[in-house]
Structures
1.
Amino acid sequence: MSPFWTYTLSRLGLLAATYAVLAGVGFGFGLLEFSELTNLIVLFAAMVISSAIGFVLLSQQREALALQVQERAEKISARIEESRSAEDVD
């Protein structure tokens, strides 16, 4: 699987797991009353917490994605430079 999909699915999975834990604790134990607003707050909290956790846990996947993007950018730059030098020859 490409590093893009690995990283993206890992981030989404981490968000879903964090939301499930927060909602399970909050709504399951009766600490929160279910409404659209509290659900939105729990989702926002899950986004913040999962991004902090993902910063630490997903560093290898992020590095692999960055390497893939860098390699693609270098290939495109090489092609552009090749085309530019071919135009200069004419």
2.
Amino acid sequence: MTWIPRAVKLRVDPSDPAQFSNTLVRVATMREPRLFVNCEHLDCLRTHGVGHLASQLLLLHHGGARVRLYNVSPTLFRTLHLLRLDTVFEVLQASGKHSDEASHRTATA
């Protein structure tokens, strides 16, 4: 029997500690979870900043989750790239471009 990892779509809002802790518990009980995070309307970016978002996503990553960020604004994409977090998470810009393509284009420009 072949096991297929589950892809989960959760509302991940690190600015809400109770909801985020529930997400961490749910991820911890899953086997190789994959999380898709829509970055288009993250409240925590406005209220807590990119550092807070990054630390919370790293908690999910260290908990065993594969994190995919999508609808990432150009500013957030550049920040994640400068922090080298695009090597930890799969990052898709709002236009649908993959982080590897954009990183290669930035390195050759």
